[in-house]
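Sorry to interrupt, but I need a hand with the structure work. It will help me judge whether the discrete encoding reads sensibly. Write everything out right here, beneath this request:
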Amino acid sequence: PFNPEDHTLDADGRLSEGDQEELTAIDYESTVLELGFDWQALSRWRFSVDWRLHARYGGFTDPAIEWWHDVLGASNAGREYFDVNRSQWNIETGGGAMEGSGTVIAPGDIDLRTVWSFYQGKKIVLGAGAAFKIPTGELSGGFSSGYPDLAFEFLLDWNPWKRWGFYADTGVIFPLGGEGRIMGQFIPVVEFRASKG
């Protein structure tokens, strides 16, 4: 949060470049290309490997978002004081700062995963999984925390009726280095199939 009256604005009503850099934590658009390989080793045991290529760039949606907020009469949350289509990040963490700007295309880390379906009923499947992150993005100057992670999860796949499905994934991630903190997640999903097929 900032008070625009405490800053000098340019003719377009935007903050100066220096003020924009100082007040910006994250402002970019991104695309991630993920490549993966799955191997169903046994009927209940699957292994996979995933790798990502990250792209951060200024994008093109800022004017459309500002226009839409103006149409609705909603606040722009301060966007109107910053240049459109910028790409900048300045994130302070316990392990230091992650800074950058402009268009950047760089590799990410490699994830090794395994999932074991320990219960397979007619309408419900329960599974357990584990994953290990190899910080290969760090080696090539890409997007990476710089240290490995270890994760465990439990999965639920329940299909009580022909067109309805319910899924849940709950897990915990343990960073094995740096200043990372243990993270938990819970992802519930409801699916309705438009077709009986």
